[in-house]
Amino acid sequence: MKRTRIAAGLALAALVSTVGTPAFAAQTTQSTVTQSQVPPINEAALKQSIAGLPAPDATAAEVRVGGSKGSWHGVTGVTDLRTERSAKEGARFRAGSVTKIFTVAVVLQLVAEGRISLDDTVQKYLPGLLPDDYPAIKVAQLLNHTSGLPSPTFGDGFEWVYATRFKKWTPEEYVGKAVENPIEFTPGSRQHYLNTNTFVAGLLIEKITGRSYEHEVTTRILKPVGMRDSYLPGDSIRIRGRHNKGYQVVPKGFQNAIKYGEQYVVDMTETSVTSTWASGDLVSTTADLEKFIIALFRGEVVPAAQLEPMFTVPQVTMYGGDQPAVYTSGLTRLELPGGIVAFGKTGARYGSAAGVGATRDLSRTVAYSINSTDAKASGQNQRGLGVALAAFAK
């Protein structure tokens, strides 16, 4: 039977190949342009990037752009295909792999407190979690996806995902399933973006603090930053409060499918996020993500001395090819047209695609949510790419 791995979510690196060849380096601490070179906000381009919704690729979108040259906020689409009510401003959404930034930030806070060393091993802090025949894996290698840890192997395609959408996974169960597979490469020699890394980082947070991952992210980041509409849902399958529904395109005849134009979709608004936990369970808003990226880049979440890994791309190649690494610890570096360098993160859950990013000097910030009808499909990030490019368009 054909088997697939659970996708780690759409990452900002997926946009790179469309934009052009990026210039990556081991230390990427400064943008190549100054604030004055970031163009004024192009409202026409931003409006166009989310125009025409609902459309085959998405049912709703919200975009928030800010920085030193003004701000823009737009909402389009419908909140529910059945009622066709207009999409809600300030709606909560599943942020997917954007969650990874928060997990990495808490680990770096613990480094700043002297409770974790990036050079110490997973085996030191979490004895017995990994097989005895696995090589030593440094904490730093978890954060920048150079650990070599494998992904768990699960069932067949979206049919399996839909059938198990309410299943409750424990982090230990997920990691245990992953390490049934052999190590993928010598730690530190390649980069492979996988949820397993951030699951182990979440377990590390719990072991060091003696409290839940959810408690630590909430008390260390969400509350201090003032992210009042963001939360970690645990094993709840629902999104609290105001939100737009998310749908996944499926074949005709699929269980519970409804007609949507020339397509068929199923409602994926209610679903367990325990299968992504510390890698992708955050529920947030564009306003909250904007607050977070500003506070993070200002050194208000992670002290400046420990923040550098978030702007550092390791000098290795991607697993399975010869392309240069693209991920930092928690973020991705992207060089846009005109030499503007941004750091950010995208995420995807079925029915929802999200992204947040900024230039390091915060001269431009962007946060978006798109209710994509095929958020995890390869090539389905074109709407998000359009938003990212429009945010920096002249």
Descriptive account of the structure:
The structure is a single chain. By secondary structure, the chain is α+β, with helices and mostly antiparallel strands. The chain has helices spanning 13-19, 43-49, 99-112, 122-125, 139-143, 157-163, 171-178, 195-209, 213-225, 277-280, 286-297, 304-307, 382-391, and strands spanning 4-5, 58-67, 72-77, 93-94, 153-154, 190-191, 247-250, 258-260, 263-267, 283-284, 317-318, 332-335, 341-349, 352-358, 364-372. The strands form five sheets. Strands 3-2-15-14-13-12 form a six-stranded antiparallel sheet, with helices on both faces. Strands 7-9-8 form a three-stranded antiparallel sheet, with no helix packed on it. α2 runs antiparallel to α13 and α3 (99-112) packs across α8.
Shape, please? globular
Q: Report the end-to-end length measured between terminal Cα atoms.
A: 50 Å
Mean pLDDT: 90
Largest sheet: 6 strands, antiparallel
**With helices defined by DSSP (H or I, 4 residues minimum), what is the helix count?**
13
Structural class call reads alpha+beta
Cα gyration radius (Å): 20 Å
- Topology pattern, helix = H, strand = E: EHHEEEHHHEHHEHHEEEHEHHEEEEEH
Number of strands: 15
Strand content of the residues, in percent?
15-25%
Query: Strands of the biggest beta sheet: in what spatial order?
Result: 3-2-15-14-13-12
Helix share, percent: 25-40%
pLDDT under 50 segments (min length 5)? Answer: 1-33
